[in-house]
Amino acid sequence: VTDGPRDLSILTRLQLGLEALYRVETRLPVDAFVIDETQRQEASVGRTPREQLLVSELGDDLGLALFVDAAALANLQANDPARGLNDGNFSDFCLALEGVSHFVYVALCASRDRRVSALELELQAEVDKFACCVLLSGRRPGLRRRLYGTVRYDEDLDTEESARYRTANDEANRYAETLERRFVQPDRLTDMLADLRQFYRLSLDAKLSHIARAAG
Prior knowledge:
Strand content: 5-15%
Structural class: mainly alpha
């Protein structure tokens, strides 16, 4: 997922990996949209999490800016996830991947004039984490529990935001369980990729129906 020349940034390698995984192309280099903490403060945002995609609309124009914690990026450059996921890089890998997932998905939806909800964005990012971790490390014991079972939510989330994150986490966990059972354990990763690519192209309602059918 993060293979590629090591002189590329970790965010670029994640973007190339996600686009290859889903067979999509944004033609937008993520590094050109990355902002630092000073630039984010100038945007006068309310919350300031360690990863954040800023989206602005002006007429038909869509503006994007991605913030990812500088310490997390430095850690990933030093502890390259392409050489393996471990306790020292797992959390930062998921953080960076979530930001790139949001960026790629919003860019693709914008190119197709398709609106995307915050819940759909979060759900897809949670699924992307599972898929990429499996592709990097195979049958990692306890992966689903680490991704979805030990989550702590920021205390400054409002009721709507909290509900959205919890729903995305729960639904992604349900889908990941079906992927484990149907594809990972019997070593059918090619079929898993086909299912993931189909899922990626569905609307939010269709995604939730897909999960319900697979889990049922």
